[in-house]
Amino acid sequence: MNWNTSSVFAPVGLVLRGRETHTVVRTLGDAAYLLIRDWPFDDGEEYMIAVKACIDAICGEVAPEQFREAFLRAADEAGIAALTIVH
To answer: Which residue among 17, 30, 55, 66 is the one 20 to 30 A from 3 at the CA level?
Structure first.
């Protein structure tokens, strides 16, 4: 399992509402925590796809980059601004 390891996908910066105004997702663990705990709603189609893709990526069944694409679609669906972090 690749729960909290660094992933091959480029980090994503998100602008959220509420307690934390912005966050950077660098690992699958970061993403899982955000999707389960801090996502603004949990009933969108893209959200459900992203949750499944995250689990699949943690289990090594899909590439982290495939998860990242699903994650960005879920952020768009939720109205969350997402930026790719470039080093």
So the answer is: 17
The CB-side HSE value for 71 (13 A sphere, CA atoms) comes to 33
Tokens of 48: 């459900």
Angle, vertex CA 41, rays to CA 81 and CA 27, nearest 5? 60
Tokens 């796809």, residue located:
49
Amino acid at 44: G
If residue 57 lies in a helix (H) or strand (E), which one and from where to where?
Answer: helix 45-58
pLDDT tens by residue, 9-34: 788 999 887 666 788 898 898 999 99
The strands making up 22-25's β-sheet, listed across from edge to edge, are 22-25, 12-15, 81-84
Contacts of the segment 55-58: beta carbons below 8 A, 24+ positions apart: 57/2, 57/7, 57/28, 58/1, 58/2, 58/3, 58/28, 58/32
